[in-house]
Structure formats: C-alpha cells, structure tokens
Amino acid sequence: xxxxxxxxxxxxxxxxxxxxxxxxxxxxxxxxxxxxxxxxxxxxxxxxxxxxxxxxxxxxxxxxxxxxxxxxxxxxxxxxxxxxxxxxxxxxxxxx
Length: 96
What we know:
About 45% of the residues lie in helices and about 25% in strands. By secondary structure, the protein is an alpha+beta fold. The chain has a 4-stranded mixed β-sheet with strand order 1-4-3-2. α1 (about 5-25) runs antiparallel to α2 (about 30-45).
C-alpha cells in the first residue's frame, strides 16, 4: 500500500517539529516526527483492504475520514485505490 501525507498533514508535521525543537534540544522534533511517520507507515502496511469506522469527530467524519491515535495525536486518513492518505494530524486535546 502506498502511503502519502497530504499538504495539511505535512504542515502539521513541520509545525510540530519546530515546536519540539524550540522546547527541547535541536533535532528532537525531527526524531519525534520520524517515530510518528514510522507508526503511520506501520499502520498503513497492516491496514490492507480493511474498512475502518469514520472518525468520531463530526468535521472529519463529514469528509469521509477514519482516525487512529498516536500518543495524544489524532491521525485522520482515508484509504482509496491502495493508497493510504493522511489528511490531518491534530492534537487530540483540541478536538471536541
């Protein structure tokens, strides 16, 4: 299965990495992002042709997105034509 990060998810990763670098040592953000991407890729590989329930968040569900958690983060994704598309990466605490 092909794995892609759409622009909004890429922006989130850049912002997360920059924030982590600002409050930790240089390079900590990049290492955290690498762990997150490894986790997403692992989930995508195991996803196969399974179907997942829509996100409980109404805004994501209305876009036809499913979600899974990575620590305190919500990864909103869609699987179509053997492509695992990550649409959004958001902090779980900001969702209603």
